[in-house]
Amino acid sequence: MAIRLTPVFKYALAIFMSLLFLSPIYVIVVTSLKPLDEVSLATMWAFPTAIDFSSYAEAFSALAPNLANSLYLVIPATILSALLGAMNGYVLSKWKFKGSEILFTVLLFGMFIPYQSILIPLIQFLRTIELYNSIPGLILTHVVYGLPITTLMFRNFYANIPDTMIEAAKIDGAGFLQIFRRVIIPLSITGFVVVAIWQFTNIWNEFLFAVTITNADSQPVMVALQNLSGSQIVQWNVQMAGAMLAALPTLIVYIVLGRYFVRGLLAGSVKG
Amino acid sequence: MADEVIDKAAAKDRVKRKKAVKDRWWAVAFIAPSFLLVAVFVYGFIGWTGYVSLSNWNSLTPDFSFAGLANYIYLFQDFRFQADLRNTLFFTLLFIGFVIVSGLGLAVLIDQKLKAETLFRNIFLFPMALSFVVTGVVWQWLLNPSTGYNTFLAFFGIQPLWYTDTTILGGFQWGSIEFGLPVAIIALVIAAVWQMTGFSLAMYLAGLRGIPEELREAARVDGASEWKVYMKVVIPLLLPITVSVVIIMAHISLKIFDLVYAMTGSGANFVTDVPGVYMFETTFRANYYANGAAIAMVMLILVAVFIVPYLLANRRREG
Asked: Where are the transmembrane segments (chain A) (predicted)?
């Protein structure tokens, strides 16, 4: 059976699939720009007759505190987990010791566990140290459970730095710290970008920890969005505007730095 | 004179060794905090959850008296949990199957040297940057029986009930549930595949780019059709990637919570319920902590069945 796809067919297929993939975004955008009286089930796909930003205003006033919470959460959590990941990755790639590979595998397992299996003790623990229902508590949580993935990414990244560079620095009399500061860190910019984008996206989008560890005042935006869509009073043009606002930060990062996002995606799944 | 040289060399050696010892300590200091945290927060907490799952803590006040396997026995006789296991099985099979087929298909399509290849790739990949919550909120409307895609499907005279359908296809009585494919699950699968196809697409595209063109060329010279080139040369070479995709998707699927919670909830007769949702509701809404812990342990074991061999195989390949 000879299948030679004709160019026309190829493009037609690619464009059809693209439209299919974009249709949810189309619905979000179109619905969020409609005034309330145009929002009906029958005209879901229709263009708005006039562009109306009132649903954004309403969604923003509902979500603003939570958007701020998400920022307070995601920035420190991303920086801390990237730093720790770089430190671990450096040791596990350039200062291997007996058993370090086994330790690494033991660490990696933490990346795959269903977080439900640590949630009850985690909440008890956060209550004990009085970080339950607080953003610092959520930061701690994301830093700890982000360690396996950030370590994996940096370890694989550093594996590409030739060992001869480390040896040369050692002969020049540089020790562990100097090599990290003067050789590894300057070569890590891309690594930090990839890891930071990955962590930013994941922590921003995360829901399970957010919904169980925080209440009203410290809730990140995804929990607030879920509450917004679950309530009967809120019209769905506002829900769509809310979805757009909640998705925007990660979408912008993806559009601007998509290349690095894909590198992170590949780095997180293929080992060494 | 000679003694002095030897002394000097010995001194230098001592300094060097001292430095090496110092470096070792630094290495330990770098990784110790992370490993201690993971030891407590991952392994310690799993142990604690296991302990809770064997206790009588099924109210707001902790009660750690030993209950044996009572919580597990309750679960496996429970209609809702049996439904969850059935739903998870079908969701996982369909989800993995479609993610692989659509990711591979789109990767091959993009690999045909399309113009605007970057644009197409970005379009298929962007849902990966969204939250499952956003996906759930939007697809809840897109697959609403009275609007969304059904507006178009009306032209063809089909109006699926999507996630509101309570039919179990090919059902037969099994335990206290009807075992078979819950039709409502398909709506969840569609939303999840839309979101995760980008992952397998990116993996397969990287894989395709890694296959030297000469290999395909050689097969063509031997007279293989383009179809045969893919079936006999390319896809077998992509097998390791397929294995990775299956494992990663399986673990996402087995612990899925946010998509279901945001999009459908448990559904009538629990047709769209999954262990993740059950665990959340029974623990944090109804205070059945021991039951919730038992569900979590079952989820952990299911994931571990996939992940542990995968991690060990990776270790061996590297070591």
From this structure: 12-33, 70-90, 102-123, 135-158, 179-200, 240-262
